[in-house]
Amino acid sequence: MIILLDSGVLGALSNPNESEINARLEQWLFNKIKWGSLITSQVCKYEVKRSLLKIQSKGINKLADLEELIDFIPIVDRDIEIACELWVKSITEGIQVAPERDINFDIILCAQWQRLQEENPGRKVIIATTNLRHLRRFAEAELWENL
């Protein structure tokens, strides 16, 4: 199984504050690293890092540490092609998830999920998230704690 972390999970893992949920999430992370492929997207890094920089959070250091544990996959041409198709599909089906002028990071992540599915036949690829709403329309996604 390949688990693709979304920005919600990556952001929570970058949170420098101690809490029960953060401790559970970190334990989950290390358990998943032991037995499978755990990756995230450069686009998720962008979303999380810009937020951490804006508030001058110490989470920047945690995010940097995560880069030693998790592969951050780049956006490739195939992702853009798929994302364009998904974006048009969302508009024509009336399930627009962001204003048309915005870059829709969820659509890009779903495109990356689709490409990973194509490149890894026979392996399950699933997005680990904190919010299923937008992702489940175009990808297989599950709340992180259910994986």
Describe this structure in words.
The protein is of the alpha/beta class. The chain has helices at residues 7-13, 20-35, 42-54, 59-66, 77-92, 105-119, and strands spanning 2-5, 37-41, 71-73, 125-129, 141-143. A five-stranded parallel beta sheet has the order 3-2-1-4-5. It is globular and about 45 Å long. The mean pLDDT is 93.
Question: What's this model, at a glance?
Answer:
With 147 residues, this protein is an alpha/beta fold. Helix content is 51%, strand content 14%. It has helices at 7-13, 20-35, 42-54, 59-66, 77-92, 105-119; strands spanning 2-5, 37-41, 71-73, 125-129, 141-143.
- Number of extended strands: 5
The largest sheet is:
5 strands, parallel
How would you sum up the global shape?
A: globular
With helices defined by DSSP (H or I, 4 residues minimum), what is the helix count?
Answer: 6
Q: Order of strands in the sheet with the most strands?
A: 3-2-1-4-5
Ranges where pLDDT stays below 50 over 5 or more residues in a row are none
Distance between the first and last residues' Cα: 10 Å
The percent range for helix content is 40-55%
The mean pLDDT is: 93
